[in-house]
Design brief:
- By secondary structure, the protein is of the alpha/beta class.
- It folds into two domains: 226 residues, Type I PLP-dependent aspartate aminotransferase-like (Major domain) (Aspartate Aminotransferase, domain 2); 123 residues, Aspartate Aminotransferase, domain 1.
- 37% of the residues lie in helices and 16% in strands.
- The protein has 13 helices and 15 strands.
- The strands form four sheets. The protein has a seven-stranded mixed β-sheet, with helices on both faces.
- Strand 4, helix 5 and strand 5 form a beta-alpha-beta unit.
- Helix 1 packs antiparallel against helix 7 and helix 8 runs parallel beside helix 13.
- The chain is globular, with a radius of gyration of 21 Å.
Length: 371
Amino acid sequence: MTKRSHKNNIHITKPLLPPLGDLIPYLEKIWDSGFITNSGFMTEEFESELCIYLGEKHLSLVSNGSMALALAIQVLQLKGEIITTAFTHISTAQSIYWNHLKPVFVDVNTSDFNIDINKIEEAITEETTAILAVHVFGNPCDIEGIERIARKHQLKVIYDAAHGFGVEYKGKSLCHYGDISILSFHATKVFNSIEGGAVICRDIATKKRVDALKNHGFDDEDRLVGYGLNAKMNELQAAYGLLQLKGITQAIENRKNAVMKYRALLKDISGVSFLEEQKDTKSNYSYFPILIEPKVFGKSRDEVYQFYKKDSIFTKRYFYPLVIDYKEFSIFKTRELPLAQRVAENILCLPLSHSIQSSDIERIVGLLKEV
């Protein structure tokens, strides 16, 4: 048998890469300045352009999304317990743990895979200080429901919008909601600065505190305002991010077209379901997850995953396992999460990127029918 060329591989995603030549002028400016980190002119410009793009007044750039989450919790000076979801990347829970707080996990709903607001109140105790909700795959949580619960119980709301760059809910950036929101600019995201992230702040005082905490806690040359860490974005990442902004609109449009094709080809396959457009939402089409019902489809999710891999198509069981299924976080399991468990065991994200070809999508769906 002839070994398949790597050119025929289809990966779960591809990073949005700007033309290399377009990056050179940005690098030349950095080299001319001799300034490569510690909030230089390129980082300041990137923050300013992102605020314009997102329609926000204040944000602070950081080294990655995990640091953004850790800083968001720290800047709100939370204590005790934070209610969150187990159907998320491990970094969501780790950010709580690293702040010496207790994560309390509740179930999700199957309409968007986000935290089920009907399960939040029963988990609230005297120790609860916040809700950390995740806009899973960039799909908005029940923002009004979470806000209502938070007001009633005087809780802070943090949104993990790692997948949410460019998403709008009711005409506003998804980052506009809650007491504080975070973004990830990891290479696998719709928008990337290779690594990086941002903390979106509601006021200038919060931004200044984040700015200090990401710089070891210094808000002046010799004055500490807290126990900080080093989470600054460097000038090269900022330059890369600035250049990415020029191509992001077209990239999202390409992803939308790919998702539309997936939906059209998959709609009549029994035992396979997918998320439709969310109400009042302008999506960024960050991922294309499907749920496979083994009893109807005839094969399990893992069988499909392995079948694809043999044909050099690399899908992702995302998010699997649940956070509480890792032994390090199983100690925080206080209730059963049947819907989250069902989603985790049956979900499969199909390849999606700004550059995926129609022929690739046809091949992926064709193999799904074949299996």
